[in-house]
Structure formats: structure tokens, C-alpha cells
What does this fold into?
Amino acid sequence: MDSGVIPTEDKVLLRPLLRSFRRQLSHRKARQYLINQAIAHFPLPPKPVVAVYAALPNEARVDAMVHRIMRAGQLPLYPLVEHDRLVFIPCTPAELAPGYRGILEPPSSGQRIPLEKLHAVLMPGLGFTCGGTRLGYGGGFYDRTLEQLPTTYPYIHRVGISFQIQVHPSLPVAPHDVTITTLITEWGSRPCPSEH
It folds into this structure.
């Protein structure tokens, strides 16, 4: 792939390949341990307001962040699909239940936390680049949700969580794609200067 902008249609062809790479990953427990260590050292304020996610099979897990948030006396915020966007609701992992496409979601009756109150949003994906491009699953939920944030909120970290095998030199990108500001893999945490 060349490092320029690749047509969006290529994303459809790329997703099954990236899923296959991730499924074949070896030494998953050791890799997850290293991701947990990087999460433990990610800078956050004493009372963090952080959106996490309930990992699907084969996704890098964020349990270390959930425990860190709860030790600080806060509740993690989980995404709930509402129309074509995500809303973030505080709850414990025990309160999660299957929702959109079987993904674990918080109770829909929970309090929605405004995006501008968040310190960080942790996001899964199928692929990432070191420059901040994220290739998700094709629903566009994180993109439509996070594009609502004015660029004057630099303190809201958009953090991609993945295994290093999911990091590529370039990925297809569309004008509406929201970039990540930090990438955490088993190789550690690194800032992502925007490619777009």
C-alpha cells in the first residue's frame, strides 16, 4: 500500500485480512500483560473520567484501565449505541449486558456523560498506524461520536488499544475518520502525530 489516501472501498477488503492476523496471534497472555503495563502508566488525573470498552474475542482488553479507574473511586464509562452514535455511561463491568450486535453495553437507563467531561476514550480497532489512523469495524460509531468534539479540547485523549500485529505503515483513510492521539500496544504507549 502506498502511504497516500487510499479509497474507502479498500477498507472492506482489508477488514477480513486484519481479523485473520489478529486471530492467529501467538503468546496472547504475555502480550496482554505488556499492554496492561502500558495502560497502568498512561497519564491520567487523580479522578479520571475515562471511556473504555468491553473487548470482543481476540481484541486487546482494557481491564487494567477499568481496575485503575475503580481504584480511583470512579466508574468506567462504557459505550452504548444510540441511533448512529455512541453515548458513554458509567457502570461496573457486572452491569454490562449484550446490546448492539451482541456487544456488551451499559444499561440504557444510565446517566449519559457529556463528551467534553472525558479525559480519555479508549478505542478498539482492526488496524492502526503510528500516525493516528484507526480502521474500525465499519460502523463509524467512534468517528461520528468523536467528530463532535471541538479541536479546542486537547485534554481528551483518543487512545487506540491493540496488539502490535495490528499496526501498519498505512491504512485506508476517509475525510470523516477521526484519528487517535495515542497508541498502546505490547510495545508500550506512544503519541500519534496526526497524518491527516
Observations:
- The chain has four helices and eleven strands.
- The domain at 9-191 is CATH 3.40.50.10420 (Rossmann fold).
